[in-house]
Amino acid sequence: MPKATFSAGCFWGVEAALRNVKGVTATAVGYSGGTLKNPTYEDVCTGRTGHAEVVQVEYDPAQVSYEELLDVFWEIHNPTTLNRQGPDVGTQYRSAIFFHTPEQEAAAGVSKENLQASGRCQRPIVTEITPAAEFYRAEEYHQQYLEKRGQAHCQF
Questions:
Q1: Most buried of 30, 34, 139, 142 (most Cβ within 10 A)?
Q2: How many structural domains does the chain have?
Q3: Residue 153 covered by a domain
Q4: How many angstroms separate the CA atoms of 141 and 137, rounded?
Q5: CA 121, 14, 86, 153: dihedral to nearest 10 degrees?
Q6: Is the dihedral of CA 149, 58, 23, 108 positive or negative?
Q7: CB 97 within 8 A of CB 108
Q8: Residue range 24-54, pLDDT digits in tens
Q9: In this structure, is residue 156 part of a structural domain?
Q10: Closest residue by Cα to residue 118 from 74, 59, 66
Q11: CATH classification of the domain holding 33
């Protein structure tokens, strides 16, 4: 199954949203894009590792396209806030698309340009589009965090 990796703030809510997409076969929350090998949640929370909280998705392209996953990504967060989503502040909460193939890179770029041109965003989109780096799976208590607690999404 192909993979897609997204950072859009706290990974709990991002995972919950993506798990509900028909055609998504698996999700895992973790850390990517930084310099420290095998970071822990506590390491990433310092903001000094360079990692983002990410969700890695496996999906069935016969049921959902990468472009449809991108549409969900844009809908579930504010891509115009730099290193912040809601009350969460820091580089670990940045908006980023980590592409796994040249096709994903191209699709992400087109999607970002189309969203900016649509006028839906009043400010410039700051989402990074960057090659997928090593993915470090987060601690087990973070996996499907909201689902384990009977919540559909994060509450502010």
A1: 30
A2: 1
A3: no
A4: 11
A5: 120
A6: positive
A7: yes
A8: 999 999 999 999 999 999 999 999 999 999 9
A9: no
A10: 74
A11: 3.30.1060.10
